[in-house]
Amino acid sequence: MKKYNYFLITCISILFSITTASAQDKVAKIALTFETVDSLHVCKAFVTSEGQPVVELPVKLSVKRLFTKLPIGDAIATDSTGVATFEFPNDIPSKDGKLTIFASIVEDENYMDTEVSGEVKWGQIVVSDNSNVDERSFSAGRDRAPIYFIAISLLIIGLIWGTLLYAVLQVFKIKRLGKLEEIKE
Amino acid sequence: MSENINKHETFTQAEYMVMKDDLLRPIEKVGKAGKIWIAFLVAVLLAGVVAYIIQETKSKYVTTSLRDYTMWGIYISNFLFMVAIGLVGVLMSAILKLTNFEWYRPLSRIAEVIAIGAIMFGGISIVVAMGRPDRLLNLLLHGRIQSPIIWDVIGITTDLTACIILLFIPLIPSLVTCKNHLKNLPKWQLKMYNMLSFGWQGTPEQWQILKKTMKTLTALVIPLGVLICTITAWLFATTLRAEWDSTNFGAYFVSNAFLLSVAVMTFATFVFRKAYNLEKYLTEMHFDKLGQAMVLMALIHGYFNINEYLIPAYKMSGLHENTLLNLFVGKEAGFYWSVVIFGIIVPFLLPLFPKMRKPLPLFIISIVVLIAGWFRLYLIVIPGLLHPYLPIQDVPASWTHYFPSAVEMTVVAATFAGVLLVVTLFSRYFPIISVWEVAEGELEGKEEIFNYK
Predict the structure, then answer these.
(1) Is residue B450 part of a domain?
(2) Partners of A69 in the beta sheet?
(3) Of B78, B60, B52, which Cα lies nearest the Cα of B382?
(4) CB contact, 8 Å: A155 with chain B?
(5) Is B146 in the A-facing interface, judged by CB distances under 8 Å?
(6) Residue A150's pLDDT is what?
(7) In the prediction, which pLDDT does B8 show?
(8) Which of A90, B205, B301, B310 is at 20 to 30 A from A28, Cα to Cα?
C-alpha cells in the first residue's frame, strides 16, 4: 500500500488544485459608497456576483498614503444584503482633504481578487504654519543657524586651533633658540 | 623614604647611558619575529584595502549586509570602539601628568601613539561607512554646524592634530638622543632625527618652552578627547531610536572609553614589556596601578550602565520594551549578559585581588575587557537600529536582521591591523618610552636641570 501513497497524494493534490482554481473563477463586483451620518463617516462596500449579493465575504478597506496603502481596521464580512459597512476615521491627514479609499477582496477561496477605489473629501486638511521657516534655529538649514551658536562655535574652534598654532610656533622658537646656541658655541 | 632619596642621588650620567641603551635598543635592531609581525599587519591592511575597493566597485547590497534599517553596521560600532580607545592618551598621559601621578612617565608615549592610531582609523571607519568617499567634501561644504556629524568631523580632526603635536613636542629631546646615541642606522633615519629635532640643544630656555607648551597641550587634549566621545554619543542620542533616547549617553560613552583605555593600556604595556624586554621600566607596579584604575573605571561604567538600562527597564514604556526585552531575555540576551559580565563585572571584581594585578592575569583580563567592549558597542548600534519607532512590515527578510559580510569583517580587521601597524612602526623608529621623561622621574625632588642628550 505504501508504494501507492505517493501516487495517491499527487492525484489528490492535482484534484484539489483544479477544484480550487475553478472555485476562484467566480468574479465579484464591489460598489463603494460613502455617507456621513452625525459627523460619522461610513463607507459601504456592496458586493455582487452575477447580479446577486454575496454574503459572508470578507472585504478589506484601505486608504492611499504617500508610498503604500494604509489598512483601515480588519477585514469586514458582507451581511445578508451583501454590504460590508466600515466606520472611517476622521483624522486621516490629507493635503487638500481628498482621500482615495480602496475596498478589496483578497485571497478568497471562491472569488478572484478584486479592488475598487473612490475619492472622498474626508481627510483632515493639514495646515502647516510655515511662518517661522526663515527663522534661525537649530533645526534650520546651514545658512539659518542661530547667530549665537555660530559665534560660540567659531570661538571654540578658533581658541583650540589658535592654541595648536601657538604650539607649532613654539617648535620653531625652539629651533631659533637652538641656532642661537650654536652660534654662541 | 631615605632609600628613595639615595636612589635619586645615585642616578648618574652612567646610569642614564644604561637607560638609553635599554630604551633605544628596539630601534637599533628589528628581529625576525618583528619583521614577520609587520608583514602580517601589512597583509591584513592590504586585504582590507582590497575589500574596500570591492565594496566601492560592486553593489553594496551584495558586498555588505547593510540595509535600510541597519544602515550602520560594524563599521560604526568599530568607529565607536576606536574613538573609545583613542581616549587612552587623555587618561594615561594627560590626566595622570596633570595630576602628578609619576607612574605615567613610561606609559605616556605608548598611550599617545595608540590614541593617534585609534583616532586615525576611527576616522577612516567613518569614511568607509559613508559608502561614497567622493562625497566626503560635501560634508564640509554643505554640512550644518548645528549637526553632531559636523562636530564629530571637527572634533576628530582637531583631536588628531592635537595628539600628533602633543606626541611630537616631547619627542624632540628623544630625537636628539637617537641621533647622538644610535650610530648604526641608515643615513636617512639619522637625517630624519636631525631634521625633526629642530635644532634641540637642551638649553634652559628650550626646556622651559617645551614644558610650557606640553602643559598647555596636555590641558587641551582632555576636553578634546571627552568632547569627541560625547559628540559621538550625541550622534546616537539625537537619532530617533528608542534605545538611544537617553540623556545619559555622553557620560555613558566617556566612562566606557575610560574603561577601554585602561584595558588597551594594560594590553600594550604587557606586549611592549615582553617584546622589547622593558621589564625594568614597565614594572609590576604599573600593572598594579593599571589594575586599580581598571576597578575604578569598571565601577564608574557599571554605574552609568545601570542608569542606562535599569531606569528605562523600570518604566518599560512601549517604546523601550521591544529593545530592552530583546536584550534582557530575548534573542540578544546571551550576548548582552556576556558583555555585562566580561566587560563590567570581571574588570571590577578580579583586579580587586592583588594576584590578579600581576602582569599576566591583568593582560588576560584586559583582552577579555577589550573584546567585551567591542561587542558592547556592537550591541548599542545594531539592536538599536533593528527596533525603529514604526513597525517593520512588508520588507525583505534581509532587512530584519544583520550579520556582517566578509567584506565588512575584512575592512574592520584591517582597521585593527592599521592601528597596530602605526604603533609598531612608531616603536621601530622612535623610542616608545620617553627617555628624558623617565630619567626626569628618577631625578624627582632635585632642582638641577639635567641635560638629557
Answers:
(1) no
(2) A64
(3) B78
(4) no
(5) yes
(6) 94
(7) 40
(8) A90
The domain of A177 spans 142-184
* Residue B23, domain member (yes or no): no
* pLDDT exceeds cutoff 90 at A63: yes
DSSP state of B356: G
pLDDT for A41 beyond 50: yes
Task: Please indicate whether, in this complex, the C-beta atoms of B165 and A164 are within 8 angstroms of each other.
Answer: yes
For residues B294 and B286, what is the distance between their CA atoms, to the nearest angstrom?
12
Domain boundary among A77, A97, A125: A125
How many domains, in total, are found in chain A?
A: 2
The CATH number that applies at residue B426 is: 1.20.1630.10
Strand partners, B53: none
Residue range of the domain that includes B305: 29-438
How confident is the model at residue A19, as a pLDDT? 65
Write out pLDDT tens, residues A106-130: 988 889 999 999 999 999 998 888 8
Tell me which chain B residues have a C-beta less than 8 angstroms from the C-beta of A161. 158
Nearest by CB to A170, from B144, B162, B213: name it.
B213
Q: Answer yes or no: are the C-beta atoms of B26 and B435 closer than 8 Å.
A: no
Structural element, H or E, at residue A64: strand A58-64
Is pTM beyond 0.90 here? no
- C-alpha cell, B446: 632635585
What amino acid occupies position B179? K
Rounded to whole angstroms, the Cα distance separating B246 from B167 reads 35
Query: Residue B420: which H helix or E strand, with range?
Result: helix B406-429
